[in-house]
Write a structure and sequence with these properties.
The chain is mainly alpha-helical. The protein is built from 14 helices and no strands.
Length: about 325
C-alpha cells in the first residue's frame, strides 16, 4: 500500500493529475478531496479557462483565487474581472504550462498553448494604455469617436479583414448582451479583436481616429510592442500549430524541431529593442520567451508557480 502511495506522489510531482485522480480511490481512503484537487489541477494544465475554479471547494482559497485571476468572466457584470482586469496572471500560467509540457515531452499541447499566447499577445501590449486587458465593458470612447472606422462593417479603407470588422463591431456592444451572447463572443471573436487593435496601432495603411485617444509618445511605444506581438503570431514556432500535412493533430513536432523553430523565430523577432528580448537567455526551456512577453507587457512576466503549488498541496494530502 505504501509503495502504491509513493507511486501516486511521483505521478503528482510529474503533474499527472488525471492519473492520480483516477488511481487515488484504490490507494487512499476518503479520496474525494484528492480527486477534487486533481480535477482542479487538470483544468489548469489543460487551460480549461471557463472552469478553472468552478466547484473547487476542496481546494485552498488562495489557489482558487489565483486561478480565478486567469479566468474570463462568464457574464458582462461578473466580479472580479479576472483575465479582463489583467492578462499577466494568465500569461504567467501559460508560461508554466509550456514549461511543464516541454519537460513531459507533450509537444502538441505545448504548441497549442503557444498558439493561445500568440492570439491574445496584442492585448498584453495594450494593457498599460487601456488600464485593463481589453474588457469590452470598458473600451475607451475614443475607439468609436467621429472619424473612426473601428467596427464599421464593410469599410473598404479599413485594413481589418471581414472577420475582424465583425468582431470589432460586436465588441463595442457585447457588454449589453445576455450571458450567452457574451460567452459566444469570447469563444469566437475576442482574439480577433486583439489582432484588429494591433493592426490599428501598428500596421494600418490608412489610419483613422480610432487610436487618437492615446497620446503620441505612448502610442509610438505601443506601436512597436503591438508589431512584435503580430510578428510573434507569424513566427515558425507558432506556425508549428498549422504545420501538419493532414490537418490539425496529425503532425507532432519533435523537441529538435521546436527548438529549431524557436531559434529561427528569435532571429525574426530581434529587429528592434522589444523583439530583441527574445534573445535573452533567461533559463526558460524556450530561452527568451518570458523576457519577450515581459517586454511586450512592459512588466515582469515570469512563469507562475500555481501548478507547482497545487502539486505541493496534493502531495501533502497523499501523505496525510
Amino acid at each position: 500500500m505504501e509503495s502504491a502511495r509513493d507511486l501516486l506522489v511521483s505521478l503528482a510531482r510529474r503533474y499527472a493529475f488525471s492519473d492520480v485522480g483516477a488511481l487515488a480511490p484504490d490507494v487512499v481512503e476518503r479520496a474525494d478531496e484528492i480527486e477534487a484537487v486533481c480535477e482542479f489541477g487538470q483544468r489548469l494544465l489543460s487551460l480549461d479557462a471557463e472552469d478553472f475554479a468552478a466547484e473547487a471547494r476542496a481546494v485552498p482559497p488562495d489557489l482558487r483565487r489565483r486561478a480565478r485571476a486567469c479566468t474570463m468572466p462568464q457574464t458582462p457584470r461578473e466580479q472580479p474581472r479576472g483575465a479582463l482586469e489583467s492578462l499577466r496572471p494568465a500569461y504567467a500560467l501559460l508560461l508554466e504550462v509550456i514549461a511543464i509540457r516541454w519537460h513531459r515531452r507533450e509537444l502538441s499541447p505545448m504548441v497549442a498553448a503557444l498558439h493561445i499566447a500568440s492570439e491574445y499577445l496584442p492585448l498584453l501590449a495594450f494593457e498599460p494604455v487601456l488600464g485593463n486587458a481589453g474588457d469590452p465593458a470598458r473600451w475607451p470612447a475614443g475607439l468609436a469617436a467621429p472619424g473612426s472606422r473601428f467596427g464599421v462593417i464593410g469599410e473598404r479603407e479599413c485594413d481589418h479583414t471581414k472577420a475582424e470588422q465583425s468582431a470589432a463591431n460586436r465588441t463595442l456592444r457585447v457588454a449589453g448582451e445576455p450571458g450567452e451572447g457574451w460567452r459566444a463572443y469570447f469563444d469566437r471573436q475576442h482574439s480577433q479583436v486583439a489582432g484588429a487593435l494591433a493592426t490599428c496601432v501598428a500596421t494600418c495603411r490608412t489610419p483613422c481616429s480610432a487610436m487618437d485617444w492615446i497620446e503620441p509618445a505612448p502610442r509610438e511605444h505601443l506601436s512597436v510592442r503591438a508589431r512584435v506581438a503580430l510578428t510573434f503570431a507569424d513566427t515558425p514556432l507558432v506556425r508549428l500549430r498549422h504545420a501538419a500535412p493532414v490537418g490539425h493533430g496529425f503532425g507532432v513536432p519533435s523537441p529538435e524541431e521546436v527548438l529549431d523553430a524557436w531559434e529561427r523565430s528569435r532571429t525574426i523577432l530581434a529587429k528592434n529593442e522589444i523583439g530583441n528580448a527574445a534573445t535573452v537567455d533567461d533559463g526558460f526551456p524556450l530561452a527568451g520567451l518570458p523576457s519577450l512577453f515581459s517586454a511586450i507587457a512592459t512588466a515582469p512576466t515570469a512563469p507562475s508557480t500555481l501548478l507547482e503549488d497545487i502539486t505541493t498541496h496534493l502531495v501533502r494530502l497523499l501523505r496525510a
